[in-house]
Design a protein that fits this description.
The complex is a heterodimer of chains A (609) and B (277). By secondary structure, chain A is α/β, with parallel strands linked by helices. Chain A has helices at 2-10, 12-42, 45-70, 78-95, 100-125, 132-151, 154-157, 173-196, 198-208, 210-214, 220-246, 256-269, 275-294, 296-313, 318-327, 391-399, 421-426, 444-451, 471-480, 495-508, 525-540, 553-559, 577-582, 584-591; strands spanning 163-164, 248-249, 337-340, 353-362, 365-375, 380-384, 406-411, 414-415, 429-432, 466-469, 513-517, 545-549, 562-567, 570-575. The longest helix of chain A has 31 residues, at 12-42. The chains are: A alpha/beta (609), B mainly alpha (277).
Chain lengths: 609, 277
């Protein structure tokens, strides 16, 4: 495998791609530097004034883009962090006087306060089961709350007129332009690098399919909070710079109207592109400075209408439209080479899966009751039963600690408690859903790397040239031909390929227990045979414990080592396929007469039903 | 006593404003951020009536009509095309709110205005002198609650609406025109929003951005209360009481954000709100 890895690193095509992307970064940095240096000579005083403010706004807009365009969190509240920075500077310089030491301390305070506010807002907005819409409403509350605090601060915060006339840095307009432009360049370039890194793909994955992220063992709530804290701190620095430059701090800087304007600039420029929001913010602010004087209300009206039209017809904004002719020349991401990594050693003692007394109630309706089930590594359990028997609910109870109403579930000997999917995955679970549950906009390689997040922390700066997977995951890729489609976007794959990709992602977790919900549904005959072989290999060769829900009884007969029959929320029988097929009880269940008969010799759980 | 009446009338105001949003968001799960602007439109409808020197009562039907008509246009132009992109629907309706706000500013100016109240003066209630109009809102809110509950639970329209909410595909399979139901509910909700705007204006002033604070409180209340009209009434009473208490004993400025903050914390601790025990 090392040879393969080495040959990948020397692949000339790959190296050319890497070089071209490196060249892009250099080119962009050069462009930023040129604009920064040239600005003071090119623009007049009026325009410089406008531009400096717009540059600080653009920094905040980039953070909105990261949160909304990349992670899918629509926030009206980035203005709050901008306001935190502005007020920290204003309050410090007004009440403590200005000195370089105070400036530095207040900048540190800005970072700390913005981080604390972001952490609190994040805790309120992101938790298991929170709707994205709820997070958006919280993001509206935050600026309103801060504005009210500023308004009720009396002379300390200057109330509605804010703080003015405080002493600040004694710098020329040109110097301020260079500072603001350098700050924006640094933030935008850093953001550009991050969103292209392996870590940046994690943000897109969060936007595409948060639940799949959780089932890959990623703590999505914590990740979202961390991203919000980082973005809040950057927006806070921008606000600090704005206040230090303008010498004016007003409640509007923290207000939701400004938060909305940030959204509009990002939307018009192009969400999900770092440069769109930068260009959008600068262009709209400059245009506004000329137009809003002559026609204040009409300008707002035009902006509002343009915003609606863009959202309705051009959801990706204007920049991608303008750049469309150039797009083809942009370098595609270099593809990583595949390599094997050792899978997790087999479980040390204890059954892979252990369930005792698991039950699930919806009010008085009992969907599952008294489920005792043990399964060891190397077993292939077929879970069968008529519709409504509770098979899917049983799967959910194994993969999410919050689902069951009573009982215990242990994975590899460890209790899952009330932990969410990410905890179950960390304990060795992998779950493959019935409908292909993949990341629509990510490529095969990116999806597989995400699936390995638990084993290898993704870099936030670059793309790793190697993609290391357990050998059984590689086998799935080879069997299905996906190893030749690493650069394909998941959305464009066929149904069978998407299913294979999801299975490979689940296997990339190197799980001990694999749950599969109807793995053969909708597959062609060849694909069905392939997956059967893969599953047999997983259990026999690699000692994984596989639990599958399946309606295709022939398939169950071919591969399962044990069959578990579920009926009306109870396990009514376990045994080999032959035993189960021979049982009169099972025949009655499937023929629909079980309720009338009192089954023998099984202890009669159905008698009372 | 005064405090109690404050609580009751505040809860009534909250309920009246929130009921329209409940139809649209709580029941149909459509997020309409232009609801605040529609409330403002209703207020300006009653302002126009005052300006023309007509009977202040005429403002109510006018507001209902204006709101319902706006709702129809919004549903058709913005909500329907974005039905599969809910976050974009938030943005587009929000943009529409800006447009309506600016249009009002151009038409009426941005300054604060006042309207005539249809009922003037104070009444004596259990020994306390209290604004008659404020007090009148309490029975109005109760009547609204009864009417909407009856509409949702007792009529064919209500049954069909609930069928669409529970399982739209199945409802379609049964021959229900789910698009028509959404259209009707949305228009009704918008009409109720505008009506609410007209009802509360005699107590507050009118300005182009007046709807916004109401919008946020209303969204929070609907999220906390779940989807029944009666539990919404209870939620409005509890949170309204908190708002009045904070405003009275701490500061009116903080009172303005009480509902939003309390509701956010409530939802964090009990994500499903009050309605689902």
């Amino acid at each position: 495998m090392n040879d393969a890895a080495a040959s990948v690193l020397e692949d000339p095509q790959r190296r050319a791609r890497v070089r071209r992307r490196g060249g892009e970064l250099g080119l962009l940095a050069l462009l930023c530097l040129a604009l920064t240096v040239a600005g003071p000579w090119v623009f007049d005083t009026y325009l410089l004034n406008i531009l400096i403010k717009a540059l600080f706004f653009a920094v905040a807009a980039v953070t909105v883009d990261l949160l909304w365009g990349y992670t899918g969190y629509l926030t009206f509240g980035q203005s709050a962090f901008f306001g935190v920075g502005a007020y920290t500077a204003g309050l410090a310089f007004t009440h403590l006087g200005f000195s370089p030491g105070i400036a530095l301390l207040s900048l540190l305070a800005t970072l700390a306060i913005a981080a604390a506010v972001a952490a609190l807002a994040g805790w309120l907005s992101f938790y298991r089961g929170a709707s994205p819409f709820f997070a958006t409403v919280i993001s509206l509350v935050l600026p309103i709350l801060l504005t009210q605090l500023a308004l009720s601060g009396g002379t300390f915060t200057g109330s509605s007129s804010g703080l003015t006339g405080f002493e600040t840095f004694d710098l020329s307009l040109e110097a301020w332009y260079v500072i603001a432009a350098l700050l924006l360049s640094a933030v935008a370039l850093a953001a550009w690098v991050v969103v292209r890194s392996d870590g940046g793909r994690l943000l897109a994955a969060l936007r595409d399919n948060e639940s799949r992220c959780a089932y890959l063992g990623i703590d999505t709530a914590a990740l979202r909070i961390v991203v919000l804290v980082a973005c809040g701190m950057v927006a806070g620095v921008a606000g600090f710079g704005y206040a230090a430059f303008s010498g004016v701090v007003a409640p509007e800087l923290a207000g939701f109207v400004f938060g909305t304007e940030l959204i509009i600039w990002v939307a018009l420029g192009g969400r999900g592109t770092i440069w769109g929001p930068v260009v959008g913010t600068l262009a709209i602010n400059v245009a506004a400075s000329y137009l809003s004087g002559s026609m204040p209300f009409v300008w707002q009206l035009i902006l509002g209408v343009a915003f609606i039209v863009v959202i309705l017809l051009l959801p990706r904004g204007l920049l991608p439209l303008l750049l469309a002719p150039l797009r083809r020349r942009a370098a595609a991401a270099p593809l990583p080479g595949l390599a094997a990594r050792p899978a997790r050693p087999a479980a040390a003692g204890g059954p892979a899966l252990h369930m005792r007394g698991v039950a699930k109630h919806f009010g008085s309706l009992k969907v599952l009751e008294g489920i005792d089930l043990d399964a060891a590594g190397g077993e292939l359990l077929g879970l069968i039963g008529p519709n409504g028997a509770g098979k899917s609910t049983l799967m959910r109870c194994i993969s999410d600690g919050a689902e069951r109403s009573a009982g215990t579930v242990r994975l590899g000997g460890r209790d899952i408690g009330r932990g969410g999917p990410e905890r179950c995955v960390r304990l060795g679970l992998g779950r493959k859903f019935q409908n292909a549950n993949v990341f629509e906009t990510l490529t095969v390689a990116e999806s597989l790397r995400l699936a390995g997040t638990l084993h290898q922390r993704p870099s936030w700066l670059r793309r790793s040239p190697l993609l290391a997977l357990p050998d059984y995951a590689l086998e799935v890729l080879r069997t299905t031909g996906l190893d030749h489609k690493l650069g394909a976007v998941a959305r464009d794959l066929s149904h069978g390929e998407q299913q294979a990709l999801e299975l490979a992602m689940v296997l990339a977790l190197a799980p001990r227990v694999v749950l599969l919900d109807e793995p053969t549904a909708g597959l062609t005959k060849t694909e069905r045979t392939q997956i059967g072989r893969v599953l047999l290999g997983l259990a026999r060769t690699h000692g994984l414990c596989c639990l599958l829900v399946e309606h295709d009884l022939d398939f169950v007969a071919e591969i399962s080592t044990r069959v578990v029959v579920l009926h009306q929320g109870r396990i009514v029988m376990q045994g080999s396929f032959e035993e189960v097929v021979a049982s009169s009880l099972v025949r009655e269940i499937y023929a629909g007469t079980a309720q009338a008969a009192v089954p023998q010799p099984a202890p009669s759980p159905l008698a009372g039903a | 006593m005064n405090l109690l009446l404050d609580v009751l009338s505040t809860a009534a105001m909250l309920y009246i404003v929130t009921a329209g949003l409940m139809m649209v968001f709580g029941v149909m799960k459509i997020v309409n951020f232009a609801h605040g602007a529609i409330i403002t439109l209703g207020s300006y409808a009653s302002f126009v009536v005052t300006r023309l020197g007509l009977d202040p009562w005429l403002g109510l039907p006018l507001a209902l009509a204006v709101g319902a008509a706006t709702g129809m246009a919004v549903e058709w132009l913005i909500v329907r095309p974005l039905y599969k992109r809910p976050l974009d629907a938030i943005l587009a309706t929000w943009g529409l709110g800006i447009v309506i706000g600016q249009a009002i500013t151009i038409a009426f100016g941005r300054e604060v205005q006042f309207v005539d109240s249809p009922v003037r003066g104070a009444v004596s209630f259990l020994g306390t002198e209290y604004s008659a109009y404020r007090l009148l809102l309490v029975p109005v809110a109760l009547a609204l609650c009864l009417a909407l509950t009856a509409l949702l639970n007792g009529t064919r329209f209500g049954v069909v609406t609930r069928a669409v909410i529970m399982n739209e595909d199945l409802a379609k399979g049964l021959g229900i025109h789910s698009e028509r139901i959404r259209f009707a509910t949305f228009s009704l909700g918008a009409g109720l929003g505008a009506l609410a705007g007209a009802l509360i204006t005699p107590l507050s002033s009118v300005d182009p951005n007046m709807g916004l604070p109401w919008l946020i409180s209303a969204f929070m209340l609907v999220m906390v209360s779940g989807h029944s009209m009666a539990s919404l009434l209870l939620t409005c009473a509890i949170f309204g009481a908190c708002q009045v208490l904070v405003s009275t004993y701490l500061s009116p400025v903080l009172g303005g954000v009480t509902i939003a903050v309390l509701a956010a914390v409530t939802l964090r601790i009990r994500p499903r709100g009050f309605a689902h025990e």
